[in-house]
Specification:
The complex is a heterodimer of chains A (612) and B (210).
Chain A: H1 3-9, E1 35-41, H2 45-48, H3 52-62, E2 67-73, H4 77-85, E3 104-108, H5 115-124, E4 140-144, E5 160-162, H6 166-182, H7 187-195, E6 200-201, E7 206-210, E8 216-221, E9 229-230, E10 258-261, E11 263-264, H8 274-278, E12 283-284, H9 287-301, E13 305-309, H10 319-330, E14 336-338, H11 346-355, E15 363-368, H12 372-377, H13 384-396, E16 401-408, H14 415-435, E17 444-451, H15 468-483, E18 488-492, H16 495-505, H17 511-520, H18 534-543, H19 548-552, E19 567-568, H20 573-585
Parallel strand pairs in A: 1-2, 1-3, 3-4, 4-5, 9-19, 10-13, 13-14, 15-16, 16-17, 17-18
Antiparallel strand pairs in A: 5-6, 7-8, 11-12
Chain B: E1 4-10, H1 19-32, E2 49-51, E3 60-68, H2 79-83, E4 91-98, E5 108-116, H3 121-128, E6 134-138, E7 143-147, E8 152-160, E9 163-171, H4 179-185, E10 193-202
Parallel strand pairs in B: 3-10
Antiparallel strand pairs in B: 1-3, 1-4, 2-3, 5-9, 5-10, 6-7, 8-9
Classes of the chains: A alpha/beta (612), B alpha+beta (210).
Chain lengths: 612, 210
């Protein structure tokens, strides 16, 4: 560390997050590397280092000879201000080299509120923001992650995007880049060639035309770019790369533990859930593979906790055997096993009780809606009976805290549904009163609500978001109804961020100007309430000639061309429309194992059959 | 095996690792190295480790000490080489042994460092040669004023091309005087930049601490 940087680091909060040097970091000899990748995560070190996707791709890229992938995170405000004041460019952790020295800037985006942070990181690194302002092959900016299913709002900034899972895509694109660099291709030639790789989306090769009313008229690919970009997946998930020697941070992060990904995709078809629709089909690892990977990773990291991650871990077929196997290994070593929020059913509670013998944490359930009617609308296959049974088992087993998550503003929601949440919370309280093992300790029931955000590639992609005023009215209605039950604490998420997220998630590429304007006005790290400001967005939309409500609170007719329809996530539009109709009829759709609903995702598999 | 002590150094990029983070890191190093630390009993078990004199973030050290206990007998001489492959960059185990005394017996530290953007060596030497040097610092109960002069055994300064080089011997525990506190005592004459390294630890009578 040179003196200028040392002095800087000693004036900021938690400097360890800016210096690298952690155990298992990968350092290569620069003279033997021909492609240098700066893997930028548009959030803090503590968040980014918790991200499994980043660990996977860091491992995969660094396994390629001649490629060196390093990590870059967004500095906290105090650090960002000082870097700017002292004209020190943002650097990568492993080498300490500034962003400008890298060939490829790879960005991982899982959350729309990170968009302004992407711009901020590019700017801190001295990289021009817009793809059009980066004429050469150097400083190629590519993006991947959950947001790619509609990345149109960031279209002006990215050279190419990866739709779907990056394991194979990253390798293929970097090999192509290596060839292009060696043979001195120009950027246009490289992008044309990259666009022919399945899963690659080159925004600049598409032309978007608009109708007079501001809706999209057409999206047309040129220069041989595919009409629709097809999502890539890893078909053999059991044999798929898993990072068993990830970087172990020397400072505390959010998820400071081994995260073992048991399967990808989800068999449930919750109609509001984007991840559940864009990550299909389900592909699992065998219990044997998971045991081996889990042990290996614990040994290589020294972590004392292992988490089984997926979109719905209760649905893992061999969960019981897997937990037993892991517990046999973990218990004698003082390693605790943790499960993410489980489904409220008997099977899950049985698992939970066995697992939690090591260390007891709180229980979390997500019924999402307060009445059976509305849970049927959203296809959340959980009944009140399931939930109360699970709570009874939990209270009998000594738990004295339950968290319940709900959404407000779901399609067709009425005041009766909102009040149903309070009713359900009261029933949970009565269950505790009847069954608690030890009432002296009291009970903590926490109800949390967030505002429903309609997302692309879901059956609710055409829905309007309710206005902030309406959301707050429903919040007050619920708060009043819960006020009578003292054991229940009610937390609600602010609607301001949900409003921006709703606009961004269904935006078109004209919104790039808005994002840039918000960043110019100081927007960065906006998923942090410390830094978020709705006013900047309210000002930027009209300044760029756009209307935020057009994107957030407008219901789209079925015949409208949606800005993301050239992104093919394998679930057919026919399926989404059918699911939407069933939602309005309040008809449940069985999960994938109970009966295939023909969503289309099986077409990604060679044999065309999901095995769930 | 109980009452064991590890001497280690913390330099380079590791100087930014805070005390709490270092405790967590050390637990993981032992776990990766397959050296089983003894854990406390009870509801929330934690490794029985204690770092004798927490180091300020930004200060390097060649003489850190951590007390620990193991659940099995190990060859202590081999321990550093067994742990070092599992350390993050900048932390190095130097020696492991049965602790011959309590950690509280560590009383003096010798440090060297560099100071830039302030006064020259003679000015600092004069200042720290005073028989009484009063410093205000935040204590548990409000602001306290202490005389740090008795806690400075040596303060030698040399002008070099790099800035002023300093060699210090400071009382480390009860009372504690750190280089930061010394720099604060300089008030307006404090250097814009300084950086120190702990070199050696001593007992009250200046015999080496082990």
């Amino acid at each position: 560390m040179n003196e200028k940087i040392d002095a800087l680091l000693r004036q900021v909060q938690r400097p360890a997050r800016y210096v690298g040097g952690e155990y298992n970091q990968i350092v290569k000899d620069k003279s033997r590397v021909d492609v240098r990748v700066a893997f930028c995560f548009p959030d803090t070190y503590e968040i980014g280092m918790s991200n499994l996707g980043m660990k996977i791709l860091y491992g995969i890229m660094n396994d390629m000879p001649g490629v060196w992938c390093e990590r870059v995170f967004a500095p906290w405000g105090d650090m960002a201000d000082r870097l700017r004041a002292e004209h020190i460019p943002l650097w990568a952790l492993e080498s300490g080299d500034p962003l400008g020295e890298f060939d490829v800037i790879a960005v991982s985006i899982g959350y729309e509120m990170a968009y302004t942070t992407v711009l901020d990181m590019l700017d801190l690194g001295g990289i021009p923001l817009r793809a059009a302002d980066r004429p050469g092959l150097k400083h190629l900016v590519m993006a991947g992650g959950g947001c790619m299913c509609n990345i149109e709002p960031m279209a002006d900034f990215f050279d190419l995007c990866f739709l779907g899972e990056g394991e194979d895509l990253d390798r293929e694109v970097l090999e192509l880049y290596r060839t292009a660099k060696r043979e001195n291709w120009d950027k246009a030639r490289f992008l044309r060639a990259a666009a022919s790789i399945e899963g690659v989306y080159v925004p600049s090769l598409y032309d978007v035309a608009y109708n007079a009313d501001g809706t999209v008229a057409s999206v047309t690919g040129s220069d041989g770019a595919p009409e629709k970009v097809r999502k890539r997946i890893v078909e053999d998930f059991d044999g798929c790369y898993y990072p068993t020697a990830p970087v172990v941070p020397s400072t505390e992060i959010v998820h400071d533990r081994v995260s073992l990904e048991v399967f990808r995709g989800c068999i449930r078809g919750c109609r509001f859930c984007q991840a559940g629709h864009t990550n299909r089909p389900v592909r699992s690892r065998s219990a044997g593979t998971l045991l081996r990977l889990g042990k290996e990773t614990l040994e290589n990291t020294g972590y004392q906790e292992l988490n089984l991650s997926s979109l719905s871990t209760s649905d893992y077929r061999d969960l019981s055997a897997l937990c037993d196997g892991l517990l046999d290994y973990c218990r004698p070593r003082g390693v605790s096993l943790s499960l993410p929020s489980l489904r409220a059913d008997n099977f899950s509670m049985d698992i939970m009780q066995r697992v939690q013998q090591v260390r007891k944490s709180g229980l979390t359930f997500a019924p999402e809606a307060g009445t059976q009617r509305l849970r049927d609308v959203i296809n959340k296959n959980v009944t009140e009976e399931d939930l109360l049974n699970s709570c009874r088992v939990a209270f009998q087993g000594g738990w004295n805290g339950v968290k319940l998550y709900f959404m407000l503003g779901l399609p067709t929601e009425t005041d009766e549904d909102v009040l149903g949440i309070a009713e359900l919370a009261r029933k949970v309280y009565w269950t505790w009163k009847q069954h608690a093992a030890n009432k002296a300790r009291g009970v903590r029931i926490t109800v949390s609500t967030s505002e429903f955000i309609p997302k692309p590639h879901t059956p609710f992609q055409w829905e309007a978001q309710v206005s902030r005023e309406e959301y707050l009215r429903r919040v007050r209605l619920l708060a009043d109804a819960l006020a009578r039950t003292k054991a229940v604490t009610y937390n609600w998420h602010d609607a301001e961020m949900s409003y921006v997220e709703a606009a961004l998630s269904r935006g078109d590429r004209r919104m790039s100007a808005v994002i840039e304007e918000v960043w110019r006005q100081g927007g960065r790290l906006e998923s942090w309430s410390e830094y978020f400001s709705l006013d900047r967005w309210l000002a930027a939309f009209p300044a760029c000639g756009l209307d935020m409500d057009f994107y957030a609170t407008r219901e789209r007719p079925l015949d409208e061309v949606l800005p993301w329809e050239h992104m093919d996530c394998a679930v057919s539009r026919r399926h989404l429309e059918r699911e939407r109709a069933r939602a309005y009829e309040g008809v449940l759709t069985p999960d994938c194992r109970a009966g295939c609903s023909g969503c289309g995702a099986s077409s990604l598999l060679r044999e065309g059959v999901c095995r769930g | 095996m109980d009452k064991l002590r590890l001497k280690f150094s913390k330099t380079g990029r590791a100087v930014y690792i805070s005390h709490l983070d270092l405790m967590r890191t050390m637990q993981r190093v032992f776990s990766r190295g397959g050296v089983p630390l003894k854990y406390s009993e009870g509801f929330n078990p934690h490794a029985k480790i204690s770092i004798i004199l927490p180091l300020t973030v930004g200060t390097a050290s060649l003489c850190e000490y951590m007390d620990f206990a193991l659940t099995e007998d190990r060859d202590l001489a081999a321990l550093p080489s067994e742990l070092n492959p599992y350390m993050p960059e900048g932390i190095k185990a130097l020696e492991a042994y049965q602790a011959p005394c309590k950690g509280a017996e560590l009383r003096w530290l010798r440090l060297n460092g560099v100071m830039k953007g302030g006064k020259d060596a003679a000015c600092y030497a004069d200042f720290f040669a005073q028989s009484s040097i009063l410093v205000q610092h935040r204590a548990k109960r409000g602001v306290r004023t202490d005389d740090i002069a008795p806690s400075i055994r040596l303060a030698r300064f040399t002008d070099t091309a790099e800035g002023v080089e300093a060699e210090l011997i400071l009382h480390a525990q009860e009372p504690t005087v750190s280089p930061e506190l010394m720099m604060a005592a300089l008030g307006e004459d404090a250097p814009a930049y300084f950086r120190f390294t702990r070199l050696e630890a001593y007992k009250e009578d200046m015999r080496p601490f082990r």
